[in-house]
């Protein structure tokens, strides 16, 4: 999928599950359950020792799911996740080095921003769909609304502390493309292999995000 197709997919789902997982089989099971419940795009964070392998195996095992890589902090990671077939990449923030590496790659990429200066750096490198992080700390709805003034063509994915309860209000803001979060597939739920709860939370998220 190219960037436009991924943005269209996020626009349709309006909620992106974020996984912190270290076990390949559990991650695959979790991603399958999320997809069965309508969430067929996910972000796998590079936050565990085994995360790159988890990402690679989920990409292979779940070709029907758009599998992205999150927590990209370096140019090397951008190359590494692209090499294992990630569909897109996301960072919690932005640096000039990272933005250049992403712009030079073919990986569909969403940098993270926490305010106007970050956003200006993102725009300098051609990125106008960004992650606004951490959503619950930067007051994301107010922030997205305020940034919509000087930057009317930017769309935001709000993540960090989003919940099933906070999601509807966040999605009402017109320049919010989607929200992302781990609440339907927390590391604890995956570790406990609590597939029934993940299934129920994923369905609730998918239904709750629907227009
Ligand atoms: C992220 O990477 O965006 C966040 O860590 C996800 O935040 P959450 O775990 O609070 O949903």
Task: Explain what the structure shows.
This protein has one domain (3-208): Aldolase class I (TIM Barrel). It has eleven helices and nine strands. The protein has helices at residues 3-13, 24-36, 51-61, 75-83, 96-104, 116-124, 135-138, 140-147, 167-172, 187-191, 195-209; strands at residues 15-19, 41-45, 66-70, 88-90, 109-110, 112-113, 129-132, 155-159, 176-181. The protein has a nine-stranded parallel β-sheet with strand order 5-4-3-2-1-9-8-7-6, sandwiched between helices. Helix 2 crosses helix 3 (51-61) and helix 2 crosses helix 11 (195-209). It is globular. The two termini are 23 Å apart. The model has no long low-confidence stretch (mean pLDDT 96). The structure holds 3-phosphoglyceric acid. 3-phosphoglyceric acid is lined by residues 18, 45, 70, 92, 133, 159-162, 180-183.
In short:
The chain is α/β, with parallel strands linked by helices and 211 residues long. The protein is 47% helix and 18% strand.
């Amino acid at each position: 999928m190219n960037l436009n197709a991924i943005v269209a997919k996020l626009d349709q789902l309006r909620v992106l599950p974020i996984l912190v997982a270290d076990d390949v089989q559990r991650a695959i099971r979790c991603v399958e359950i999320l997809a069965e419940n309508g969430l067929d795009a996910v972000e796998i964070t590079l936050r565990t020792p085994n995360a790159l392998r988890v990402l690679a195996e989920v990409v292979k095992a779940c070709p029907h799911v758009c599998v992205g890589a999150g927590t990209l902090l370096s140019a090397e990671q951008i190359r590494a996740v692209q090499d294992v077939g990630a569909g897109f990449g996301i960072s919690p923030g932005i640096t000039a080095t990272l933005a250049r590496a992403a712009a030079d790659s073919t990986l569909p990429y969403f940098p993270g921003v926490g305010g106007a200066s970050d956003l200006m750096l993102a725009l300098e490198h051609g990125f106008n769909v960004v992650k606004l992080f951490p959503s619950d700390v930067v007051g994301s709805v107010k922030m997205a609304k305020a940034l919509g003034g000087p930057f009317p063509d930017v769309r935001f994915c709000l993540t960090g502390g989003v919940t099933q309860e906070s999601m509807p209000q966040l999605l009402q803001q017109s320049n919010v493309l989607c929200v992302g979060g781990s609440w339907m597939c927390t590391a604890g739920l995956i570790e406990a292999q609590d597939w029934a709860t993940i299934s129920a939370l994923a369905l609730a998220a998918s239904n709750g995000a629907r227009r």
